[in-house]
UniProtKB/TrEMBL annotation, chain A:
<dbReference type="InterPro" id="IPR011711">
    <property type="entry name" value="GntR_C"/>
</dbReference>
<keyword id="KW-0238">DNA-binding</keyword>
<protein>
    <submittedName>
        <fullName>Transcriptional regulator, GntR family</fullName>
    </submittedName>
</protein>
<feature type="domain" description="HTH gntR-type">
    <location>
        <begin position="20"/>
        <end position="90"/>
    </location>
</feature>
<keyword id="KW-0805">Transcription regulation</keyword>
<dbReference type="InterPro" id="IPR008920">
    <property type="entry name" value="TF_FadR/GntR_C"/>
</dbReference>
<dbReference type="Pfam" id="PF00392">
    <property type="entry name" value="GntR"/>
</dbReference>
<dbReference type="InterPro" id="IPR000524">
    <property type="entry name" value="Tscrpt_reg_HTH_GntR"/>
</dbReference>
<dbReference type="InterPro" id="IPR036390">
    <property type="entry name" value="WH_DNA-bd_sf"/>
</dbReference>
UniProtKB/TrEMBL annotation, chain B:
<protein>
    <recommendedName>
        <fullName>Cache domain-containing protein</fullName>
    </recommendedName>
</protein>
Length: 265, 216
């Protein structure tokens, strides 16, 4: 069993401070960690006691969360020696979890997320244009090349998340980088497990490349403006999807409806 | 002064490297996870000795070198007076938080050049999450690249050490690295981490690290 390691893992296992709906928060947090590859398929979760302590929830709340995750098919529990709770990275379960999240959030929550993303990622892009070294810029381009050839929506989202985090690191700011990690984590809860069409991915990719071009041209204003534009488009896509899912709320069992493919990232 | 700090840290790092080389030879070239763990005790002692300068120290093993683990680092951190703790990073390549050390400059440059290297300032994202200078040297044993040994010096701590030594010079001093990034500055006109292209100003080039000290 691995204990929290790395900044993304620390974010997963950090104490919860949002009081209400605690067991659902735990479910969402662990689901997000599975979607982002931070906890891998087949991995054993820490013991209930350890997990409850690190998340700062009661063992009762944690058990509720685990039983919810089991019901969703994201965790399997084995009893006896060598037993425990093990992760099952089920794509369908993750998609269903993110739809639920998109349904329960209000459009203002999604707008707020977009606002903070614009503030953090926009500022990071502007500062990166001033501060990024040539080798950091080359790395940003490499990441986008990997994104272009990545197979599968989940893999694409992870690489895209890393790209945003790398822009913040290129801005030479530890604090912006931490904020960006948190934001990507939150965003992941809404976007995971979804496929984009090739055209949609290409559109997002072209937008990211334009940001790197502005960074390379040392044009901070353009880097920021282009980042904000892209985030605004993603936010609109998420709000559209939210409204659609909420309006068809009575047909929840219908899995054939289209997911917010247009949401981008 | 700068060279003295760097030289001192590198001396400890070289001792850590020698421990790992000894471990590699003792294992007959077929190193396992536990052979890396064997350097731990001496490593922690060296880190504690250097903790006024270095915040972290350790070894990073070349991918695929160990017979029983693809990626491995033995890196310890000692902040202020607290007991040293091992740095735990995410070494799963599929994770959004993957610490891709084999692609990091502090790893690739010593591997490529066979020489020691100072990188930074940079944000050590997915690693220590600090703003750092990292000093590394290659670990070579019987012609084989085993990995790197290194130490982390927080940029802020480095600044304090150098500013103290500088005293009250009248002129402004700006230290820039090979990528024109400000490493240290006595003036808010140049912020640490900014790019400063100061080609016209009189400057002194350091031998190692490959930095320039500009007096304005």
């Amino acid at each position: 069993m691995r204990l929290p390691a790395g900044d993304a893992r620390r974010a997963v296992f950090a104490p919860l401070d949002d009081g209400a709906m605690r067991s659902e928060t735990v479910v969402r947090r662990l689901g997000s960690a599975i979607a982002l590859g931070i906890i891998v398929d087949g991995e054993q979760l820490p013991s209930e006691l350890q997990l409850a302590a690190s998340l700062n929830v009661s063992t009762v709340t944690l058990r509720d969360a685990l039983s919810d995750l089991r019901a969703r098919g994201l965790v399997a529990t084995r009893r006896g020696r060598g037993g425990g709770s093990f992760v099952v990275a089920s794509q369908e379960a993750l998609t269903e979890l993110s739809r639920g999240r998109l349904r329960e959030l209000g459009s203002t929550d999604l707008r707020e997320l977009g606002d903070v993303r614009a503030a953090v990622s926009g500022a990071a892009a502007r500062l990166a244009a001033e501060r990024a070294s040539d080798s950091e810029i080359a790395r940003l381009r490499e990441t986008l090349d990997r994104l272009a050839s990545a197979e599968g929506g989940t893999e694409q989202r992870r690489i895209e998340g890393r790209w945003f985090i790398d822009v913040a690191a290129a801005a030479q700011s530890v604090r912006l980088t931490r904020e960006e990690i948190e934001l990507q984590f939150e965003l992941g809860q809404l976007l995971w497990g979804t496929e984009r069409t090739r055209a949609e991915l290409d559109l997002a990719l072209a937008g990211h490349r334009r940001v790197v071009d502005a960074i390379a041209a040392r044009d901070g204003a353009a880097a920021r403006a282009r980042t904000e534009e892209q985030i605004a488009a993603v936010t609109s896509g998420l709000i559209e999807a939210h409204v659609r899912l909420t309006r068809q709320g009575h047909r929840r069992a219908d899995h054939t409806g289209s997911y917010p493919e247009a949401a981008g990232s | 002064m700068i060279e003295r700090v760097v030289e001192r840290v590198f001396r400890s790092v070289a001792a850590v490297r020698d421990d790992l080389v000894a471990g590699y030879r003792a294992a007959g070239g077929r190193m396992c996870d536990s052979d890396v763990t064997a350097v731990r005790e001496a490593l922690i002692a060296r880190l504690v000795r250097e903790r006024s300068v270095a915040v972290g120290m350790g070894v990073i093993v070349a991918p695929g070198l160990l017979v029983d683990r693809p990626l491995r680092m033995e890196w310890w951190q000692a902040d202020t007076e607290a007991a040293p703790v091992m740095l735990e990073v995410d070494l799963n390549p599929a994770s959004v938080g993957f610490y891709d050390y084999a692609a990091a400059e502090w790893f690739t440059v010593p591997r490529r050049t066979g020489r020691r290297h100072v990188v930074g300032p940079y944000v050590d994202v997915h690693g220590t999450d600090r703003y750092l200078l990292t000093l590394t040297l290659p670990v070579l044993a019987d012609g084989r690249f085993v990995g790197v040994a290194g130490a982390d010096v927080p940029v802020a701590r480095f600044e304090t050490l150098v500013l103290r030594e500088l005293g009250d010079l009248a002129a402004d001093v700006v230290v820039v690295n090979v990528e024109d990034r400000v490493v240290l500055s006595t003036s808010p006109r140049w912020l640490v981490g900014d790019r400063a292209v100061l080609t016209d100003a009189p400057c002194r080039a350091l031998d190692e690290p490959d930095w320039r000290v500009v007096v304005t």
